[in-house]
Structure formats: structure tokens, C-alpha cells
Amino acid sequence: MSDLVPDGQRSSTARVVAPASPRKLAKVPFVELADGRLQGVVSSGSDIARVYVSSVAAGTFAYTCSTNNNRPCGGAYGGFCNHIRALIGEAVLQYGAGRVARYMRVEPVEADSPAQSVIAPMAQTRPVPGDKSAAASVFSRFLRQLAYLEMAPTTAPLPEMQWFPPTRAVA
Amino acid sequence: MRADLLAESVDGLDEALAAVDAFDEALATGLLRPQPAQAAGLAQLAGALAGSPLHANVAEAAAKAAEGAAGEDHLLALAAARTALLGSVHDALAARAAEATGRPAAEPPAADAGTGPAVNVLAAARSWLADLARCGWRGIDHDVVSGAAPVVSAMLPDPALRRLAALLDGFADELAASCPGSALESVPARRWADLWSRGMLLTLPGAAGAPAAGTATGRLLPLGVDLHEHATAVQAQVHAVFEPADGAAPLLVRASVSAPKPETIVGAGLWQLLRPHMSLLTAVSEGRAMDVTGMPLTAEGDLVWDDARARPGESADAFSTARVALPTAADPATAPLDRHPARIAVPVFLEGYAAAQAETGLTFTVAGTALPVDTDRVPLAGPLTPEAVAKSAACIGLLRWDAGTFRVQPLAVETAVRKKPVALHAGAWAGGTADKAGVKAEKAATDAAGVLRERAGRLLRK
Asked: Containing domain of residue B86, as a range?
């Protein structure tokens, strides 16, 4: 929701970012738009203990895909592998095609466009493999979010949360 | 309710907010190499504090900042000045709201600075916020924004630092989604300056407040649930009338429960996360009162919930509470540092209004005054909808103020469904639900949480 309400500059509580839309997490437990990349973690279809860490850079669409043990993905040569396509698809479900397109700097699309409307223009530019060093930080960001589940809830009031109202707007 | 008072102008409000806006504009451009317009904005903030005890410090800080030479202490002084100014705005608006509701005010607490350890991580937080101030919102990039992550990670395990951690995490997420700042069409200048100044003040040891001073023993009659969420945190706040067992005057209180969360826990998943930690949520869903014994209560009317000190009471209809108990309950005072217009959330009961859909959204016309209704704050995971609010005959809500106007956030409405009167509560699903749509949402949320817990179990401790 970077399109702020008209008086957004004078509002304390206008939501700047729409909340993530609910989606099934089994295939892609983690996806985010961060550090100038669409990045996340894709569960392996064959090995329950293995995950692929995948990313696509905004603007250049340089991509990476490897396992959490740093083995390269067999499918990620000469273009997006299925992990990367699944990752982008889930990002579109979570954030809406509009926000994904804006972040990745592809031609603007409607918020409710299908994933293909974002994947195709990126794939057509024949992107090249990118810097693999990002994988470690993506995986650690995933672990960091998982760790949030283990933080103790508190019943002491957090007055600062008054600045974060819910919204019915969906991504 | 005297709704007419809410539409009237408040003396001095525009002048105070103009000084705030001038500073916010300076912050949007960044304080690294200030231009004359920014120097003027800084001076305007300092000028607004003339005659106050803060003035000398703020004037010095504004002058240093105008030269591009502000240290962290100077930035802290500017944040304090802005907070003080908005504190005065809060006081004027809260007084106006109290006039409109006609309810008594509880005795304000004695100003009591909390104490707290000066931990290193607070200094790290302040250093990140100082970097932001130098960049300005139009100068942010991924490098500067990502500096928040290690600070937040270090703070989250300590519940005593949760206020600042939750603030910084939500703030950094918004900034990250808005990078690079140079490409932003418009900047939420007041919002981000709010978050920045609160963050700065919370880096002072003890600023997060004193521990609960008193205890509450008596009956708690819930009015409704207010939900707050950002990508990685959620808080539910139950507003209730507390009737002390010793026969003292009834008091409006809040009970809160909050938790950090992964971004993909949303909707009904939020209630699932909070539900096990506050039995009051279940009582709300079941339409019950609760009896509390020796429950810690802060001077600001916040119960610090402990399930061991509460047991379910008899059934209690929120609308009966709103009609009978709410008018005589006293509104608690706000802690000095928490005084800010965004903090205003005054429980009100409205009926006999005319609902109308205006171009800018829904309004309730109460005794000739049209009050905007903020239906966007009604959480998706619940039976209350904007359509039901628009057709309602009675409403329990929170009176809030933002962007220049008072508005009502609905917590519950009485409306007719197939010609039968029913009560719909925004927080009805907080404690669980048998509602068909609710059960489906709960199932999806359970599955999502299950996947994350399974992944955490497999990957986290390797």
C-alpha cells in the first residue's frame, strides 16, 4: 500500500505496508522482498530435511538457487529453475502481483494479476546467475523468523503497537 | 455523547502541529547536510518550546542540527521536543474527548520515571535511529535499514525490551518496503517521525515505564477487543469496565497480550498465537465477565494479565455493560511519555445514529454531527464487517483521532440479520469460534503454523 491515503503525510496510523495474504506454506515456507531481492526458502520435493535457498535480484533478475548446505540446484542453469518459479508464485500470493512487480522493477501489473504476469517478463530477459553469497543471509533471515515463534508472549502492554492498526486491505 | 464537541476546532492545535510538520519535513530530507528550509523547520520546533524547561536544550540541538553537526544527544533533545509538543496536542484532544463522553477522569498518576538497566543494545538502537535521521526518509537505502535487524534480534528475547523491539521491527519493515527513499512519491512524514521519536526516547533506560503499582480485585466486564499488528508482531487489547470488589468507583481498564510472529501468521492465526496466554480472550468470545484477584494494575489502567489471578465469571453482555456500566466508569490517565494523539482510544457507546456512506467513507450522524467511522480497523478474522457496521443500530467503539479528525473504530455493533437483532463483535473469534467461516480460517491458520513449527523443529537447532 505505498499509495498512501490523501492525508497520509499527516497521519500517524496510516498503514504503509499491507499485511501478507494467507497462503499454504508447505512448498515455500518463506518468501520476502528484502535487501533488493525477492528471496526465500523452498522445501525439497524429495527430502524432508532439505530446503533450497533461492533469490532473484530486483532490476537485473540475477538468480541463485542452492540447498541450505550450499550445493547448487541442478535446475538453475540457463534460466529460472522450478524452485525460483514456485518462489515467485508464492510471493505473488503473499504480497500481490502489483507489489512484487513494483519491487522487482518490471512493468507495472494489476494487484490481482496471475504470477505468470510477473515471472514471464523477468524470464524473457534471459537473466544470468547472480552472486551466491546471498544464500547464507537469506537462510539466516528465515531462521530468524522461525525463531519468532519461540519468543515468549508478554501481557505487559506495548503502547507502540497503537501505531500499527490492522487493515482490511489485502495484498 | 456530545458529538458536536468533536467537530469543533481545538485552540492552538494547528499551531502546535505546524511546528511538528516543520520538523518532520526537515527529518524527511535528512540532517546530514541541512538546507536553509530544514534549518527553518528545526528552528520552528525549538521556537514552539519557548518558555518550557526543554527550550535551552532544544534550541542548542536545533542549531547544531542546522549545521549538520547534531550528535545523538542533540537528536534525542529534538525527539523529546517533538514528543512534548504532541503530548500537549494529546492533552487538548483527550480533554475534548472527555467533555464529549461526559465521563469522570481517574486521578492522574504521580509522574514516576521508571528505572532500567542501560544495556548496550539500547545504545545500538539509538545509533541506528541516528543514522536514519541523517539519511532522511528520502535518503534511506537497504544498507541503512538493514542495520535494525541485529538490534531487534538482540532485544526480542528480553520481554523488558519488547516495546522498543516491536516498534523498531515494524518500523524497519516499512522502511525496507519503501527503499530506496529517493524513489518515494510521498513520504508518511508524520508517521515515520512519530516512530523515530518514540524509538529515540525508548532508548533511554527507564523510559519504557515503571512496573505496575497496584492490584485489582473485582469483576471485569469486557467491552471489546482492539487488535494491533505489523508484519512481525501482534497485540490484542481487551477494553473492559473494572468494578472493584471493595465498592470503589468503576474504572475503564485494558488487558493486553502480544507476541512476535513470522510474517505469514495472519488472520485467525493471530488469535491462535495469543489465545493460550490470556484466558480473558476466551471469556470475551463466550460473552462472560471475569473475576480477578490481586491482578497487577498500572496507574494508566493497564492490567498486566496473569491467568492464575483470574477465573471465568457469569455471562455478561457487552452491550449491557456499555449501556449501564460504561457511563459511570472513570477514564484512566495516560503515562506522561505515552501522551500522543495516536494513543487516544476512548471507549464509547453510540446508538440512535444515522449511518451514511460518504465519499470519504462511512459516517455516523450523532445528534446532528457526522462522525467518520474507521471500518478499515475491523480485523478480517472476525464476524464484524463494514457492511454490518453500515446497517447497525448501536455501536461499541473506540474514539480515536488521526490526521486532523476524531473518528470511531467499531468494536461491536447491534444490527438486524434476517430481521433478528444480533450483536457482532470484531474480536468474537479471539477465544475460538464455531462460526463456519471462522472454523475454515482457523484450519488454514493451524496448517500454516504447523508447517512453520515443523520447519523450526527441523532446521533451527542444527
From this structure: 1-108
Considering the domain architecture, whether residues B2 and B65 belong to the same structural domain is answered as yes
Q: What own/partner pairs with CB < 8 Å and gap ≥ 24 does B50-56 have?
A: B52/B84, B54/B80, B54/B81, B54/B84
What distance in Å separates residue A51's CA from the closest CA in chain B?
Answer: 9
Q: Is A136 on the interface with B (CB under 8 A)?
A: no
* Spatial distance between the Cα atoms of A170 and B289, rounded to a whole number of angstroms: 34
The pLDDT-based confidence of A2 (bands split at 50, 70, 90) is very low
Q: Given B178, B208, B238, which residue is the final one in a domain?
A: B208
**A77 at interface of B, judged by CB pairs closer than 8 A:** no
Interface test with A, best of B374, B407, B455 (most A CBs within 10 A): B455
The full DSSP string for B234-284 is EEEEEEEEEEETT-PPPEEEEEEEEEE--TT--THHHHHHHGGG-HHHHHH
Whether residue B316 sits in one domain with residue B252: yes
Q: What is the CATH number of the domain that holds B309?
A: 2.40.50
Whether chain B has a CB inside 8 Å of the CB on A69: the answer is no
Secondary structure (DSSP) of B149-172: HHHHHHHTT-GGGHHHHHHHHHHH
Q: Tell whether B203 and B222 lie within a shared domain.
A: no
Distances from the Cα of B20 to the Cα of A66, B24, B85, B147, B282, angstroms: 49, 6, 7, 27, 42
Residue A8 — very low, low, confident or very high, per pLDDT cuts 50/70/90? confident
Residue in chain B nearest A38 by alpha carbon: B177
pLDDT at residue A4, rounded to an integer: 38
Q: Tell me if B231 is assigned to some domain.
A: yes
pLDDT by residue (tens digit) across B381-413?
Answer: 999 999 999 999 999 999 999 999 999 999 999
Q: Do A16 and B177 touch (CB under 8 A)?
A: yes
B73, B81 in Cβ contact below 8 A? no
All residue ranges of chain B with pLDDT < 50 are none
Chain A residues in contact with B263 by the CB 8 A cut-off are 20, 32, 94, 145
Same domain flag for B195 and B221: no
d(CA A82, CA A80): 7
Q: Which helix (H) or strand (E) holds B127?
A: helix B120-135
| pLDDT at res. B10 | 96
For A32-87, write each residue's pLDDT tens digit.
Answer: 999 899 999 999 988 888 999 999 999 999 999 999 888 999 887 789 999 999 99
C-alpha cell at A11: 497521519
In a domain, B352, yes or no: no
> Is-contact B54 B80, C-beta < 8 A?
yes
Helix (H) or strand (E) holding B175: helix B162-177
Chain A closest CA to B133's CA: distance in Å? 17
The answer to whether residue B131 is domain-embedded is: no
Q: Which residues of B touch A147 (CB under 8 A)?
A: 456, 460
